[in-house]
Amino acid sequence: MNYMMMKVYCVGQLLLSVFVLVWSSSREVYGDEQDKPCDLFKGSWIVDDSYPLYDSSHCPFINPGLNCLINGRTDKLYLQYKWKPTACDISRFDGKEFLERYRGKKVMFVGDSLSSNQWQSLACMLHAALLPNANYTLTRRGPLTTLSFLEYEMSVMFVKNGFFVSLTNRTLKLDTLVGTGLWTGADVLIFNSYHWWLHSGRLRTWDDYQIGNQIFKDMDVMEAYKTALTTWANWVDSNIDPAKTRVFFQGISTVHYKGSDWNEPSVKDCREQTKPINGSDYPGIKPQGDPVVRSVLSNMKKPAFLLDISLLTQLRKDGHPSIYAGKGLDCSHWCVAGVPDTWNQLLYTLLLKS
């Protein structure tokens, strides 16, 4: 390699290293006010009469349990709240711009039902941009759901994989990933794993943990969670080219099953909640998995941006399906249209402006 080629190569590697550092560690990007950076995840909810971004009755991708209006919810103010970062404004979602920018590419969500919640929201947002002539195909094969917008040759995909690691004979193998073959080739990857780790009683699908040949019966669940996330992070570091693929980790979405969590002990859960918590401070504590996620991401060599939805979901005790889930009570997932639209608006901002 001659001197000039070596010089170009070194400069290129330096720029890539700077990109990786900024993309993986910074919470600040430029919003609509281009002269100053802004923490997109610190802010509050304000009413905007131009919301919601789409009519959910025209979206064919919403699971019955998340279609709150169809299920009889009559209050509609929850649809009109917009996330307002403290230091800036964020661009309104433009579905056609998103499709054009990612023409011929694949955007993939990997995770549990909260990932599916976000996938459904983005599917509706893009579909609405093409009405009344939305030309698409929807296929389901095993854990993979693929929505393709044919005119743009662009796909939005969801892979159901709530642990990332193998669950075999009720043993979670914390050092063995599953489904990685589906992850390769995506241009944008949005991962999520947390809520399945909190399951107990009849919902808990495992009895013990395994690392190598060693079985653990009484490992702390957050220690197990961190071990599994580290296995995932090592895969990203070894297999992802940040020049070709953007990687996000969907932060921890908040549940609202106890009013005491937000200083309303007389409130049992999310039922009859019609407004967010005012301001930009949540009176309760962070989810126990939050420091685990931050620790794992901070030690990665390749960029994985935290889509930090914890605060903005903590404030939205009104956004759940509640009794409008078709059956039972749901204070964990989110109505569509609703709160997940903001997750995708932030994703849109990060992809198109960072």
Outline the structure in words.
Helix content is 28%, strand content 20%. The protein has eight helices and 15 strands. The protein has helices at 3-25, 95-101, 113-130, 180-183, 221-239, 290-298, 310-314, 339-353, and strands spanning 28-30, 37-39, 43-47, 81-85, 106-111, 136-141, 144-149, 154-160, 165-168, 171-177, 188-191, 208-211, 214-216, 246-250, 305-307.
Low-confidence stretches: 1-25
Radius of gyration, taken over Cα atoms and rounded to an integer in Å: 21 Å
Order of helices and strands: HEEEEHEHEEEEEHEEEHEHEHH
Q: What percent of residues are in strands?
A: 15-25%
Q: What's the number of helices?
A: 8
Give a brief outline of the structure.
The chain has 354 residues and is α/β, with parallel strands linked by helices. Helices cover 28% and strands 20% of the residues.
How would the blueprint of this fold be written?
Layout: H1 3-25, E1 28-30, E2 37-39, E3 43-47, E4 81-85, H2 95-101, E5 106-111, H3 113-130, E6 136-141, E7 144-149, E8 154-160, E9 165-168, E10 171-177, H4 180-183, E11 188-191, E12 208-211, E13 214-216, H5 221-239, E14 246-250, H6 290-298, E15 305-307, H7 310-314, H8 339-353
Parallel strand pairs: 5-8, 5-11, 10-12, 11-14, 14-15
Antiparallel strand pairs: 1-2, 3-4, 6-7, 7-8, 9-10, 12-13
Helix pairs in contact: 2-3, 3-8, 5-6
